[in-house]
Description:
This protein is 28% helix and 20% strand.
Amino acid sequence: MSRRPLVNDVLLLIDIQVGFDHPTYWGSRRSNQSFETNVTKLLHGFRGAARSPIAGTRPNVIHIYHKSLNPASPFHPSSDGINFQPYATPVQGEVIISKSVNSAFIDTNLEEMLRVLEVQRLFVAGLTTDHCVSTSVRMAANLGVTDHLDKDTGELVKGKIILIEDAAATWERGEFDGETVHRVQVASLKGEFCEVATTDEVLKMIYSAYALT
């Protein structure tokens, strides 16, 4: 008989698409120049956890991509910008969900999927910190998507939403540079809507949970 997972984890990657490479559409300078490196490290860690020696345990990776209704958007289906970045391209077995608004939960089956998985730790990364990432984190908290009733005890299990602060990024907004916008958004979300961790801290959690070295 397979052992039930100690923790049900999901890595939720939001809008890591080629369209964000546009030289002027989003702004002149993005925050967090380590973004690509950290997303790559996260995917390597979560995918490696699929080889966990603990029976019945496997974290899930869910890719959200933006499919704009605006023909001028780099994310319109007519544009190559809708494609995933090469370093964040889904592999077989990973879930892909499209959205057309800021929240990853509006007009999608993401909430239903997370509840079926009985997710206890939802790790969130992607673009941009102040728009789709923030909106999705706030809605995840409001919906309580990491909370569920234990099938054995009937007790409410309170899960965690964890924003990976160095695996999210944004651009300048008005007079505020991208780094300032990013830091303010993370500070606003922390405590009220989610916990905050770095890529290295998250990887330590994953390696510990899935007995990886």
